[in-house]
Design a protein that fits this description.
Blueprint lengths: L2 E5 L4 H12 L6 E5 L7 H7 L7 E4 L2 E4 L1 H11 L10 H24 L4 H15 L15 H20 L9 H10 L12 H14 L1
Parallel strand pairs: 1-2
Antiparallel strand pairs: 1-3, 3-4
Helix pairs in contact: 1-3, 1-6, 4-5, 4-6, 6-8
Length: 211
Amino acid sequence: VCGRLYTAYICPYAQRVWITRNFKGLQNEIKLVPLNLQDRPAWYKEKVYPPNKVPALEHNGKITGESLDLVKYLDANFEGPSITPDDPAKKQFADELLSYSDTFVGSVFSSFKGDVANEVDPVFDFLENSLSRFNDGPFFLGQFSLVDIAYIPFIERFQVFLSEVLKYDITEGRPKLAALIEEANKLEAYKPTKVDPKQTVEAFRKRLSAQ
């Protein structure tokens, strides 16, 4: 073991890094250290990562945080299949989609309180259109990449919550998004990281009542 990934099984940001670790085959090199976010141990903030958030990676005597930075760090510093495209057009589109990911997440969360369909239709339509850009595979850049890793943990949770609680089906009229979810669900790197849907619903309900 040459690294430790501090994570929380419920956290979509931490899930991004967990999927990357699995996809690159680093299960024996990077140990998962799961934390309970409801009851964070004092030593984590004091000795490991002062911002007290997950994910954080301990590697080569350094601690790094922020999920997308960590996804890129694992890709750059470890062996295993690359998740960064070589093609310049794909690279540029990857940057655009990564910078949109916070807008996507924020828009969907804020829609829970409002008129869901009106607020989330445009963001899910944006994803559907983005999935049409490269047709050499079902993922955002055709082949599986860091863009899918950035979005899938959130798509997974939003699909569950929106359909169960708000009766909105994110895949209706969006065949490419449906295909993306179907293909992602077959990935060995992703399967073990999925959250129990009941936990997702409960966590989002809590978030809603706290707003």
